[in-house]
Design brief:
446 residues; alpha/beta; Rossmann fold; 4 domains; six-stranded mixed sheet; four-stranded parallel sheet; 14 helices
Length: 446
């Protein structure tokens, strides 16, 4: 018999200017993040406020409601008293009071749909007797669990350490000053300061390792420079990996989980074209993606930044579609990915009634498709090939016998229309990008 999953309560504050639909969508997304972590969400506690409460995120009434789900007192013990309220705050009657639940049904984790300070997290834990994770901590934990390659693990560890550094005092260590000594702590350095120094040193070490891996990835991209590249980008769980498998026939990981893919995979578009078209799958984006994660994954996201074409994949069946499209565009702008793009509204097989027509009207430039429909995938492939066809030029290259290796290269990287031979060499008529034609001509004249 499988063990029951740990229970969690979601805590959200609907700030001024945030609509009901946006607030609900954000909590729904947090619930999916909780599921990905293996948690069972048993309740949602929400409050409308102008700003997060300085000490405990929510007001006193909501704090008691929250504690009812976890077995806590609902009161911050003396010595960790929250600051006095500032300005008018709406009464927290927007959700019914919660009676204390039975011990076996209590939650042991609270997931906060915001980034909170270390002191806010400590106060919530003391008032509720539960572990508290803010949104960034949840995302970092999922990334940590899903990282497989050396590069992904290094990227996630950098972000986790950067998140941990300002929260070290939670352990209570570092109150006593220690003497200096060879191999020991620095003069007057506390245990907490020592830990922070260790974190800084480890981050520096990881960044050096990541720089080496990034150079290796750049070398691989340079070798593929003559071949057109397509990058699948978009919100997490939008179906990028499913499209990757359908377009390339590769056995990439497909799971109905957020951030199932953290490592970039590059495969050849099938059926193969001349020149070959390479397709890469990239890490998904999400609202409020921790800045340190974006910075750490910059080398991975270089596949998107240096692609010739971006396939922006979005889940057409998600109620937060518009917000997810905007988040993806913001991240792409942040990393400098400005290549031409196609908007793909995936999972249309889940739509009912007039919704497809409404999406056509809202996004006339988009292609509606399902990665599960072979006909849709074939149409997408034709559009990809057609995009690169428009950028190709037709030309003739004369290759002397002493440079016949260029004939094989032409067949590998260009669409050869005709090929003739005479006593001095080979004449090839082909279609290829202008820079490829120029490079072949230059090599043939050397």
């Amino acid at each position: 018999m499988a063990e029951p999953r740990p229970r969690a309560v979601l805590l959200g504050v609907q700030l001024s200017g945030v609509g009901d639909d946006e607030h609900t969508s954000s909590l729904d997304e947090l619930a999916r993040l909780a599921k990905t972590l293996g948690l069972e969400v048993v309740a949602r506690v929400t409050q409308k406020r102008g700003a997060l409460a300085h000490g405990t995120v929510v007001g006193e009434g909501k704090l008691r409601d929250l504690a009812a789900w976890t077995g806590g007192t609902g009161v911050v013990p003396s010595g960790a008293t929250p600051r006095k309220k500032r300005g008018p705050v709406e009464d927290d009657d927007d959700s019914p009071p919660v009676e204390t639940v039975e011990t076996e049904a209590r939650a042991s984790v609270i997931l906060v749909d915001h980034d909170i300070t270390p002191s806010q997290a400590r106060n919530l834990e003391k008032a509720t007797s539960a572990r508290v994770l803010d949104r960034s901590a949840v995302i970092l934990e999922i990334f940590h669990r899903h990282a497989r390659t050396r590069e992904a693990k290094a990227q996630v560890e950098i972000a986790r350490l950067a998140y941990l550094a300002p929260r070290l005092r939670d352990s209570g260590a570092g109150k006593d000053r220690q003497r200096g000594g060879i191999g020991g702590k620095g003069a007057g350095e506390s245990a907490m300061e020592l830990d922070r120094r260790k974190i800084r040193d480890r981050i520096a070490e990881l960044r050096g390792e990541l720089a080496d891996l990034s150079r290796e990835a750049s070398t691989r991209r340079a070798r593929r420079a003559a071949e057109p590249t397509v990058a699948l980008v978009g919100y997490t769980n939008a179906g990028k990996s499913s499209l990757m498998r359908a377009l390339t026939g590769s056995e990439v990981l497909i799971e109905d989980k957020l951030f199932a893919t953290l490592d970039t995979t590059v495969r050849v578009l099938r059926p193969e074209t001349r020149p070959r078209i390479l397709v890469s799958d990239t890490v998904g984006f999400i609202k409020k993606l921790p800045h340190d994660l974006v910075a750490s994954f910059r080398s991975t996201l270089d596949e998107a930044r240096e692609a010739d074409l971006l396939l922006h994949v979005a889940d057409a069946s998600d109620p937060a579609l518009a917000s997810q499209i905007e988040v993806t565009r913001q991240v792409l702008a942040e990393i400098g990915a400005d290549a031409p793009s196609m908007l793909l509204l995936n999972k249309v097989d889940r739509l009912d009634g007039a919704r497809p027509s409404e999406l056509y009207a809202e996004h006339p430039e988009a292609m509606l498709l399902s990665a599960k429909r072979p006909a849709d995938v074939a149409t997408l492939r034709e559009r990809i090939v057609g995009h690169f066809e428009t950028e190709m030029e037709e030309g003739e290259v004369r290759i002397p016998w002493q440079h016949q290796r260029l004939v094989a290269e032409a067949h590998a990287t260009c669409r050869v229309i005709s090929e003739t031979h005479d006593e001095t060499g080979t004449t090839i008529r082909l279609r290829a990008p202008a820079e490829v034609l120029a490079r072949l001509r230059t090599a043939a004249e050397e």
